[in-house]
């Protein structure tokens, strides 16, 4: 795997031409595997002999993984993404009430108001920048970050730092010292946030989690609290940030598809689903481990192997999505659904919120700036330095009305 990231689609196509499952070399010369094909990935994500708990990670258990390994947090953080069975159900039940369909709809007016305010800010930034502004910085980032932090109860003073640290934690090209420092600082910031909510509880998720811990100490340990906050903040804003960014890029490059939406030939929900399939916000997500030697699509994945879920590859798998899988088509509808928000017990809990935020953001962005266009060619946009997140680091646009 290329630790510097970049656009994954050409490499994905080459790998898919050889099969749905492939061996990969992770940073640090760690041997792993990736599941790329849609059908194979769907089976793998829900397989009863596949675990998330790092006690099944053979190389980690044997001491072969260094403390500064850039992907170690994905394996060792204590929370829903590394729990199985009853532990996973316990942790998920503590958080799930904040992401029900009813709760998401209650958040809609706040999302709409924040969107309007951020569009005003984007307009001002463009006016100050000779007509050009970074849509990612001024719009696609502060919207989901503001919403998830408000939901959690994280004060605004921490937002920028938490985003920076999230980027460091999901990066795959950083050295051991940087990786250790980023994780240590993230824990420090989140511990400060948790302490503030302990002293001054409110109507927010962190306060509810702390109350659950104090009411019954074995329901949520201190490391699980910090781990839950870390994964909720990272997943709760990075995925939606990439989704909005990738959708804007896709629509600017496919004006005919934008015209279809404007004319009623497709919905903004269709745009979101096609973006999730065509340019998944997450490219390869670490890790799952077979608890026995597992044969998948004719390939053996040895017990204890760290396996990447190849969402960006599965989204363009021609065997599942047809010969035109590489084409961005908002009228695609029906047929095989994408897997970009997961499948099985670990399906993304925040999916309803991400979909709502993205549809509100895109519909209001293009209503306000119908002639919005990229300010630089797509090929010149700086990519994420990670094979986990799939997007660009900046999105300069001309927000024309």
Keywords, separated by commas or semicolons:
401 residues, alpha+beta, Cytochrome p450, three-stranded antiparallel sheet, 17 helices, 9% strand, Cyt_P450_B, Cytochrome P450, Cyt_P450_sf, Cyt_P450
How would you explain this protein's 3D organization?
By secondary structure, the chain is α+β, with helices and mostly antiparallel strands. The protein has a single domain (9-398), classed as Orthogonal Bundle (Cytochrome p450), CATH 1.10.630. Helices cover 51% and strands 9% of the residues. The protein contains 17 helices and ten strands. It has helices at residues 9-16, 38-45, 58-61, 72-76, 85-96, 101-128, 135-140, 142-152, 159-170, 176-199, 205-215, 222-253, 255-262, 268-278, 311-314, 318-321, 351-368; strands at residues 21-26, 30-35, 50-51, 133-134, 284-290, 294-296, 299-301, 307-310, 373-374, 396-398. The strands form three sheets. A five-stranded mixed β-sheet has the order 1-2-8-5-3. It has a three-stranded antiparallel β-sheet with strand order 4-10-9. A hairpin with a 2-residue loop joins strand 6 and strand 7. It is globular. 48% of the residues are buried. The mean pLDDT is 92.
Question: Which SSEs are present, and which pair or pack?
Answer:
Layout: H1 9-16, E1 21-26, E2 30-35, H2 38-45, E3 50-51, H3 58-61, H4 72-76, H5 85-96, H6 101-128, E4 133-134, H7 135-140, H8 142-152, H9 159-170, H10 176-199, H11 205-215, H12 222-253, H13 255-262, H14 268-278, E5 284-290, E6 294-296, E7 299-301, E8 307-310, H15 311-314, H16 318-321, H17 351-368, E9 373-374, E10 396-398
Parallel strand pairs: 2-8
Antiparallel strand pairs: 1-2, 3-5, 4-10, 5-8, 6-7, 9-10
Helix pairs in contact: 6-8, 6-17, 8-12, 9-10, 9-12, 10-12, 12-14, 12-17, 14-17
């Amino acid at each position: 795997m290329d630790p510097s990231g970049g656009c994954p689609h050409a490499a994905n196509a080459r790998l898919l031409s050889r099969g749905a499952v492939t061996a990969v070399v992770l940073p640090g010369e760690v041997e792993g595997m990736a599941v790329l094909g849609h059908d194979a990935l769907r089976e793998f994500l829900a397989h009863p002999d596949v675990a998330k708990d790092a006690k099944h990670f053979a190389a980690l258990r044997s001491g072969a993984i260094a403390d500064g390994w850039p992907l170690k947090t994905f394996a060792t953080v204590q929370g829903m993404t590394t729990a199985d069975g009853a532990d996973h159900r316990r942790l998920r039940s503590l958080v799930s009430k904040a992401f029900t369909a009813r709760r998401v709809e209650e958040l809609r007016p706040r999302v709409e108001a924040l969107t309007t305010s951020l569009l005003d800010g984007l307009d001002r930034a463009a006016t100050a920048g000779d007509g050009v502004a970074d849509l990612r910085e001024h719009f696609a980032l502060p919207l989901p970050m503001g919403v998830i932090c408000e939901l959690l109860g994280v004060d605004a003073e921490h937002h920028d730092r938490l985003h920076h640290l999230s980027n460091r934690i999901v990066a795959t090209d950083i050295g051991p010292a940087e990786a250790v420092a980023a994780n240590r600082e993230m824990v420090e910031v989140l511990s400060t946030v948790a302490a503030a909510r302990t002293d001054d509880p409110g109507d927010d998720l962190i306060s509810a989690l702390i109350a659950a811990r104090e009411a019954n100490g074995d329901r949520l340990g201190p490391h699980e609290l910090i781990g839950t906050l870390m994964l909720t903040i990272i997943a709760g804003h990075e995925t939606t940030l990439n989704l909005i960014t990738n959708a804007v890029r896709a629509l600017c490059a496919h004006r005919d598809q934008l015209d279809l939406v404007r004319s009623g030939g497709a919905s903004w929900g269709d745009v979101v689903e096609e973006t999730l399939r065509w340019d998944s916000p997450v490219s390869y997500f670490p890790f799952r481990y077979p608890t026995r030697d597992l044969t998948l699509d004719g390939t053996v994945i040895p017990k204890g192997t760290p396996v990447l879920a190849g969402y960006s590859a599965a989204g363009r798998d021609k065997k599942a999505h047809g010969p035109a899988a590489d084409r961005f088509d908002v009228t695609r509808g029906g047929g095989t659904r994408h897997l970009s928000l997961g499948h099985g017990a670990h399906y993304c809990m925040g999916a309803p919120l991400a979909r709502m935020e993205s549809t509100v953001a895109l519909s209001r962005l293009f209503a306000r700036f119908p002639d919005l266009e990229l300010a630089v060619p797509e090929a010149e946009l700086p990519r994420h330095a990670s094979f986990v997140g799939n997007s660009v680091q900046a999105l300069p646009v001309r927000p024309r009305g």
